[in-house]
Amino acid sequence: MKKLIIKALALVLTVSAIAIACKKVPDGFLSPNIRYEETPILVPQGIVKVSTALTLDGSAMPIKVKLLHVYDRATGKNVDDIFAKKYSIKVWTGLYDPKVDNTLEKIDAKRKDSLVYPISINEFSGQLEANFATLNIPLGQYDFDLEVSNSAGSKVYPKIGKFNLNPAAPFEIPAAGSQVAMKVGAETTTKVLSPTITTVKKLSDSPDKIIVRLTDKNGVPFNAAAGEIGRRPVGGTSTGFLQTMDLYSLSVTNFADRMEFIYGTVPFPLTSLGNGFNYYYRIPTQFVHFDDPALPDGQYSCNARFSFRVFVPGTYEVTVKIPGVTRR
User: Fold this and answer.
1) Residue 97 and residue 182: Cα distance in Å, rounded?
2) DSSP code string of 210-261
3) Is 8 helix (H, G, I), strand (E, B) or coil?
4) Taking the mean position of all CA atoms in its chain, how far away is CA 28?
5) Residue 107 DSSP SS3
6) Strand 300-307 vs strand 259-262: parallel, antiparallel, or unpaired?
7) How far is the C-alpha of 183 from the C-alpha of 180, rounded, in Å?
């Protein structure tokens, strides 16, 4: 009898094990707590913006993300119609190199017209991606729904994301200016002076041109056409010159009171060749007088640096004032 009981129990356990083995176990996991850490996502109008990815809270990869609806946060109104319209913008098809792509023809060979949504959601990461076409949609604060799918199924996440479309300046000054006096014939002998002061004004929506004036403390411009503005050599034992705006431009024309740079794409510059988006120029010693008595005429050059970047096409006037210096 005891042996029969043991055999029966073993049979029950075997059948149970088979039943468990045959039962379908859910494949993967889709968390109800998927979220954005960046909230709200701040989107500058007319400027490229890519948010951080969704935090998946252990959900199985890969995922597929779909934007379902967008709402005006103030009113709760569905505004899908605003964001469902596509706009034509230039999209890069190749790697841009300002050293090589120095004509509009070469630039256009690496771009194509493409119809895009002003704001979209990356289907693989959930990142919000905004582009130049956001200039066509109204500023405001918005919420949006997502559908997220993976091997475990699909789930709708109502108003999981928030973004604010904010006004943005069409340009920026990424870094402070600087001014250094360097002794002629002994470049390592230097004196740091008051930094340059940069002011910018947008003059028109076309052509795509930047007008740069380097002036003394009184606002008198140095004469680029007469050689009063030159390139600044690399210091130390290195040879060559530090970067100027010329390196990024399609062309440069020097005048008595200004330099004019024609550019071919925005942002301009699109990428940095080094040293950020700074431009280094030299006023030779024969054209400059320093207020500082420790810097006598004819012995020190004036080395001015400024920073500037454009996001929206048009003509801009950039004035760089150099304090403590008089043109002579």
Assistant:
1) 32
2) EEEEEE-TTSPBP-TTTTSSEEPBP-TT--SB---GGGGSSEEEE-SS-EEE
3) helix
4) 37
5) helix
6) unpaired
7) 10
Q: For every one of its 328 residues, what pLDDT tens digit does the chain have, with 9 covering 90 and above?
A: 445 444 544 444 444 444 444 444 456 899 999 999 999 999 999 999 999 999 999 999 999 999 999 999 999 999 999 999 999 988 888 888 888 998 889 999 999 999 999 999 999 999 999 999 999 999 999 999 999 999 999 999 999 999 999 999 999 999 999 999 999 999 899 999 999 999 999 999 999 999 999 999 999 999 999 999 999 998 765 678 999 999 999 999 999 999 999 999 999 999 898 889 999 999 999 999 999 999 999 999 999 999 999 999 999 999 999 999 999 9
| Contact (CB, 8 A) for 92 and 119 | no
Domains and CATH numbers, the chain: 41-166 (2.60.40.2710), 171-327 (no CATH)
- Token duo for residue 176: 């402070």
Length of the chain: 328
End-to-end CA distance of the chain: 120
| Residue type at position 173 | I
Give the integer Cα–Cα distance in Å for 224 and 196: 18
pLDDT of residue 26: 55
SS3 5: helix
How distant, in Å, are the alpha carbons of 43, 87, 260, 267, 285 from that of 253? 36, 35, 5, 21, 23
Q: 160-187: string of b/e by CB count within 10 Å (b at 16+)? A: bbbbebeebebbbbebebbbbbbeeeee
Query: Alpha-carbon distance 257 to 252, whole Å?
Result: 14
Using DSSP's 3-state secondary structure scheme, residue 120 falls into strand
